[in-house]
Amino acid sequence: KKRTVTQIWNNGYPDSIYLNAAKIFQSIHIEKSKDETQVRYADSSEFPMMAFKDEHSRRVSYELAFNALKYQDLLEKILLDSGAYPCYSIPDELTSLLVVMLYDLQDRKFQKRIIFDEEELVADVQEVGLYLYRYVCKTKLAAALARCRIKYDALSIEYFLPETICKQEKRTSALPVSAWINTFKISIEDVIRDLEMKGFKKVESVSDFDHYTYAVDQHCPDVLFFPSSLKEELLNLDLFADYKLLLQ
């Protein structure tokens, strides 16, 4: 039976992803002085976590949390400017969930997320999601974001990122993806054969990358490099789902 990893979501995430991302964000969000504090967060120890379904779910949870962290100031401004915060039905214990789900909602252009039949629903996630997506609240949130962008003449929310983070992201996006071969489960030759059967072509170095290509590390033959643009596709290969190739 073919192994698969968690799908790549374009219409929202399962409740467990939001919950775990909120827990991570709760632990890393920027603490502000009492004079600056307008959005209140509860103690991080009060927030439960769910087991990660697979490695892709773990990565998506961390990515969502760190995206919320990057835009924490903007997201808090949107919540305050729209009047969506404070809300008597959303306690401080769920503020981190509110921020994380707001980031995802604006990233989806305020479109409704799809809930799959097999998904395990979490009451807190459902409550916060419904609150954010209510017509009046959603409209006010979108309007608050638009006002921020107009005020700063920003074509996208990336404008609000500090310059140091922008430079880091540009460098990161240009780096090749590296993975090492788990030789306890598969041989190097079998991995190469599998990749070539799937249409990958070996090149001499990362400077020769052209989409479905890979290169072997010159010093470590069990380490492979791929173009950064293939990261999500790689995670859905059986080699990664079966932990025969491990993403670094």
UniProtKB/TrEMBL annotation:
Domain NOL1/NOP2/NSUN 5/7 ferredoxin-like: 181-230
Highest taxon, organism lineage: Eukaryota
Alphabetized Pfam families for the sequence: NSUN5_fdxn-like
Gene Ontology MF terms in the entry: methyltransferase activity
GO biological process: methylation
Keywords: Methyltransferase, Transferase
The name this protein goes by in its record: NSUN7 methyltransferase
Species the sequence originates in: Malurus elegans (Red-winged fairywren)
Name of encoding gene: Nsun7
